[in-house]
From TrEMBL, chain A:
It is found in: Cell membrane. The keyword Cell membrane applies. It is a multi-pass membrane protein. Pfam families: BPD_transp_2. This is Leucine/isoleucine/valine transporter permease subunit.
TrEMBL record, chain B:
Residues 1-20 form the signal peptide. It comes from Thalassobacter stenotrophicus DSM 16310. This is Amino acid/amide ABC transporter substrate-binding protein, HAAT family. Belongs to the leucine-binding protein family. Keywords: Amino-acid transport, Signal, Transport.
TrEMBL record, chain C:
Keywords: Amino-acid transport, Cell membrane, Membrane, Transmembrane, Transmembrane helix, Transport. It comes from Thalassobacter stenotrophicus. GO terms for molecular function: transmembrane transporter activity. One of its GO terms (biological process) is amino acid transport. Belongs to the binding-protein-dependent transport system permease family. LivHM subfamily. The gene is livH_3. PANTHER family: ABC TRANSPORTER ATP-BINDING PROTEIN, BRANCHED-CHAIN AMINO ACID TRANSPORT SYSTEM PERMEASE PROTEIN LIVH. This is LIV-I protein H. It is found in: Cell membrane. GO terms for cellular component: plasma membrane. Coiled coil: none annotated.
């Protein structure tokens, strides 16, 4: 068994090495795929804070992913058409402002949804988050102002001071940095008093309550942080594709985020990274073999759930403590 | 099981074998929907396209086919892959307007040609038109406009109109109203993907309309037609061909018999190209072609005609060769307007039964040499 | 708006509701007895519809088609229970969500592999086609009336089964104390398989009945599944009565929302944009209803357990 810390270091290096190799070999599309892995892993890291530490099985995280995506889409759309938004505010093509907007707006969405849904628990929570996700989905499809189902195309990728974001490797660097920061935040959060209390609230809410903490507030805070990070990933994902559409809100995406965590290993720091990498790899390589590749994916998922409970990291690094 | 999988893969990849050699070689990237809901349309476009390529015997063309799963994000990534890694010259294949909006502007901006075998969103026909973008199917409004024109000629004065609440649905109703001159008994937007239309049918019954126009593509149309036929409301129905294509008519069955729909193509259009196309498509794939298959076939023939007279690396010459549209279309007369969208006749069809197969026959022409209204905004 | 239209729409809402009930009943039963959340319930709905379409196509008999739908869905349910689901009872909800999500992928693409990408044909039997005149001059679809009848009959039958029969006693016992009924010598794994197959059969029946007026295609189960979730969340998970009430509430809210909301917006907006905005809101109405119910009662209307 390899210690998880070494495994994590190897994974970090691997995620760096693949695009660098692709740069050398002039395979720009491989860099794009690696960027996609980093961004989806970032979304998974967001979910992992709610689900892994807090035990909150949210089947509606696509809502935050989509809100982040639309934060980028709406700001950039107004900037590229030179139409002011409400109250005369101008749109922008600057990534830092877009990210801030995405973090705040998806955090607020998480606050609203969390305040309502965290009154419930267990299977109710799963279903009600799913339903809230659907609510956002239908809203995005039928609201005509920002393209409805057609979505919004942003013709040129947004800018970051000092970088050429159109260059695949530089955009990868941005996504990779964001992922590393989120992983660092996750690790610190988990070891902090807040993280420990949250973990305790997952295992035994009653005990947490007796020491004078409110499980509801702990979970709500975790849910907001989780939603905000997933929203940031949404903004980056939209920038990767230069496009946003309601499919970012689809419940299948919520399902896929959970799939990442399970493939890699729930509550493992690098679980979402492994999961996203494996998922993207399968999508691109099984897809070449057969139109029906999703059957293979389904079987693989089943095998992981039934026989590899710690996910792939669990297989390599062993059961946790 | 694995044998079947392998077979499916061979079928999916059978166009990639041709080796490009020397002058005039063209690499085509086709992104289309081959799995999940709506796969039938992509499969028809692909099959029609590859039929024309194979019939031509042209070994100078290489086609790479990828499945977008009807997800815009996947389509964008496949486009990146084709442009960045495969270095294709021409792209084609996208079925859905929202996917086209996600892919086409970026592809044409990077100097690639895009030939649309199906989607024709208004944004790409008007202000967002591009010299390298050619639509070989129709502008999205065309078939709806034809339905409106037909409603006038049939003497309808009080139509009830419905479509799903999304951009293509809103465009559909706008397109119908553009040509239709009568009153509206009602205008309803349904939920995208809705499967039960009892509420809308009740409204139709209560509205006092003399006719119904609907745009409900795919499964939505199947549901609506079955429920409408069963409801006992017997107002005449008209719609665009998308709810009456060969792929889904069998699933609607007798409920569609006699329903009038508008299309730029049908298997009984009388010209040699079309007759040969219908026959060879049936021989090759064992089913009747749909309008999507005809569009795929025409798209490939357009491309082949341009390759015959220009080198794809000479962008201006190749563009001019495409614009000339010097190929034998299954639709008979075919030309491009200045915004690179078709000028063509749009027919009125009626659903009939031939043996135990449901299909369409042409009963008239709704619009002759029809183009679209957005061309005026196109500056190129 | 005429009274006749309103009554007709209420009937439509009721019909939509009882079809949802067929789906929701199985879901809530499985959750109540085994504590399992099953995302693949929609796939069993699809299996029922495809089996019915295949058998109706081969034999021309709607009755045989319904029988085939029940049998195929129950068999698929039992098979899945034995192979996969029973390993999940002791797991947390997360594993259940993921495993059943995987089953959706397998069922959907597997069905497409067997039946192809094009929708199948299934129609209303001749005896039930066309409209029927109700008192008050209402013309209403015979088949939809039949659906309402079937739904009510199933609800009554299920109620009797649970309150009166030996199986029902075991189910209720299983709901309140799983360990105890195993200790009493009841073959608990057989009971679980039966309950799961029963839920699957109801979903398959719903698929076949609805398939006759809709499009029989891959992926038809998921939208219904999500609605069924909303239903049982509103009604209270595990409660059959809750599922019935929730289903009818959702059916009526959806149908009447579509009818009334665009009209309400038309009072102060131009007709075209009122139609868009009104239907946008109508498509969200049931989720708003659900949120409201949960704020009022976090475990649903008849829920006992979280």
């Amino acid at each position: 068994m390899i210690p998880e810390r070494w495994l994590n270091a190897a994974l970090t290096l691997g995620l760096l090495a693949v695009p660098l190799w692709a740069l050398w070999a002039d395979e720009p599309f491989t860099i794009t795929l690696a960027t996609k892995v980093a961004i989806l892993a970032l979304a998974g890291v967001g979910l992992n804070i709610a689900l892994g530490i807090g035990g909150l099985v949210s089947l509606g995280h696509a809502a935050f992913f989509g809100v982040g995506g639309y934060a980028m889409g709406i700001l950039a759309h107004h900037a590229q058409t030179f139409q002011p938004m409400i109250w005369g505010l101008e749109g922008t093509k600057s990534m830092p402002i877009i990210w801030l907007t995405a973090l705040v707006s998806s955090g607020l969405a998480a606050l609203a949804i969390g305040a309502l849904t965290l009154r419930t628990s267990g299977v109710y929570f799963i279903m009600i988050t799913l339903a809230f996700g659907q609510m956002f989905y239908y809203f995005a499809i039928s609201w005509p102002a920002y393209g409805g189902e057609d979505g919004l195309s942003i013709y040129v990728r947004n800018g970051f001071p000092g970088l050429n974001t159109l260059d695949p490797i530089q955009f990868f660097a941005i996504a990779f940095t964001a992922l590393m920061l989120a992983l660092f935040l996750h690790a610190r959060l988990k070891a902090s008093p807040f993280g420990l209390a949250l973990n305790a609230a997952r295992q035994s809410p009653d005990r947490v309550e007796t020491v004078g903490l409110s499980p509801f507030r702990l979970r709500l805070l975790a849910f907001v942080i989780s939603g905000a990070i997933t929203g940031l990933a949404g903004a980056l994902f939209a920038d990767l594709n230069r496009f946003v559409s309601p499919t970012m809100f689809s419940w299948q995406l919520s399902g896929e985020l959970i799939v990442f965590l399970l493939i890699g290993g729930v509550a493992r720091l690098y679980g979402p990274v492994v999961g996203a990498a494996v998922f993207i790899f399968l999508e691109h390589h099984l897809g070449d073999i057969s139109e029906f590749w999703q059957i293979g994916l389904g079987v693989l998922l089943l095998l992981i759930v039934l026989f590899a409970r710690g996910g792939l990291i669990g297989l390599v690094a062993g059961e946790k403590r | 099981m694995f044998k079947h999988l392998a077979l499916a893969a061979t079928v999916a990849a059978f166009g990639t074998a041709a080796v490009a050699d020397g002058h005039g070689a063209v690499k085509v990237g086709m992104i289309t929907t081959l799995s999940g809901g709506g796969a039938g349309l992509g499969i028809d476009v692909r099959d029609g396209f590859m039929l024309a390529i194979n019939q031509s015997g042209n070994t100078n063309i290489e086609v790479i086919i990828e499945d977008d799963q009807r997800k815009p994000e996947i389509a964008v990534q496949l486009a990146d892959k084709m442009i960045q890694s495969e270095k294709v010259d021409v792209m084609t294949g996208i079925i859905w307007s929202n996917l086209a909006m996600a892919v086409v502007p970026a592809a044409t901006a990077q100097g690639k040609f895009y030939l649309s075998p199906n989607a024709g969103p208004s944004a790409l026909a008007g202000r967002g038109c591009h010299p390298n973008y050619f639509n070989v199917a129709w502008q999205n409004d065309n078939l709806h406009e034809a339905a409106g024109a037909y409603a006038n000629s049939a003497g309808y004065t009080n139509s009830f109109i419905l479509a799903p609440n999304y951009p293509a649905g809103q465009d559909a109703l706008t397109g119908y109203k553009r040509q239709y001159g009568g009153e509206l008994a009602g205008e309803v937007f349904t939920k995208l993907g809705q499967t039960d239309y009892a509420a809308e049918i009740a409204q139709i019954r209560a509205s006092g309309a003399d006719s119904v126009f609907f745009f409900l593509p795919g499964g939505m149309g199947i549901s609506f037609l079955k429920q409408y036929a069963d409801s006992g409301v017997d107002l005449p129905v008209v719609g665009p061909a998308f709810s009456f294509d060969q792929g889904i008519l069998q699933a609607v069955g007798a409920a569609a018999l006699g329903v009038v729909n508008t299309s730029q193509w049908n298997k009984d259009i009388d010209n040699a190209t079309n007759a040969a196309f219908v026959e060879s498509f049936q021989a090759e794939y064992g089913r009747l072609p749909s309008l999507y298959a005809s569009q795929g076939f025409d798209t490939a023939n357009l491309l082949l005609s341009a390759m015959a007279s220009a080198d794809v690396n000479d962008t201006d010459a190749f563009r001019a060769a495409l614009k000339a549209a010097d190929f034998a279309s299954t639709r008979g007369d075919f030309a491009f307007a200045d915004n690179h969208h078709p000028i063509q006749d749009i027919y009125v069809r009626e659903v009939i039964q031939e043996g135990d197969v449901f299909t369409n026959r042409i009963i008239g022409t709704a619009l002759t040499d029809h183009s679209d209204v957005y061309g005026a905004d196109c500056k190129m | 708006m005429s009274l006749i239209l309103l009554i007709e729409q209420v009937l439509n809402g009721l019909q939509f509701g009882v079809t949802l009930f067929l789906m929701a009943a199985g879901l809530t039963l499985v959750f109540g007895v085994m504590g399992l959340i099953n995302l693949a319930h929609g796939s069993l709905f699809m299996v029922g519809a495809f089996a019915a379409a295949a058998v109706a196509g081969a034999t021309g008999s709607f009755v045989l088609a319904l029988g085939a739908a029940l049998a195929a869905a129950a068999a698929a349910g039992a098979l899945v229970e034995v192979l996969v689901i029973r390993r999940l009872y002791a797991r947390d909800h997360l594993d259940q969500v993921l495993a059943t999500f995987a089953l959706i992928l397998i069922f959907s693409e597997g069905t497409r592999w067997v039946f192809g990408s094009f929708p199948l044909y299934l129609n209303i039997p001749a005896a039930l086609s066309g409209p029927i005149s109700l008192p008050g001059g209402i013309e209403y679809s015979t088949y939809r009336l039949f659906l309402i009848g079937v739904g009510i009959a199933v609800a009554i039958g299920l109620g009797l089964l649970i309150t009166r029969s030996r199986l029902g006693i075991q189910i209720r016992a299983g709901e309140s104390d799983r360990e105890m009924i195993a200790a009493l010598g009841i073959d608990i794994s057989r009971l679980y398989t039966i309950v799961f197959a029963l839920g699957a059969a109801l979903a398959g029946l719903a698929g076949a009945l609805v398939g006759a007026i809709q499009s029989v295609q891959v992926g038809m189960g998921e939208p219904v599944l999500i609605l069924a979730f909303v239903v049982i969340v509103i009604g209270g998970i595990g409660s059959i009565k809750g599922a019935l009430v929730g289903a009818v509430l959702v059916g009526l809210t959806d149908t009447l929302g579509k009818l009334l909301l665009p009209g309400m917006f038309a009072l102060f907006m131009p007709a075209s944009s009122a139609a868009t905005v009104g239907s946008a809101l109508a498509s969200m109405a049931i989720y708003i209803l659900m949120a409201a119910v949960l704020i009022w009662r976090p475990t649903g209307l008849f829920g006992v357990r979280a």
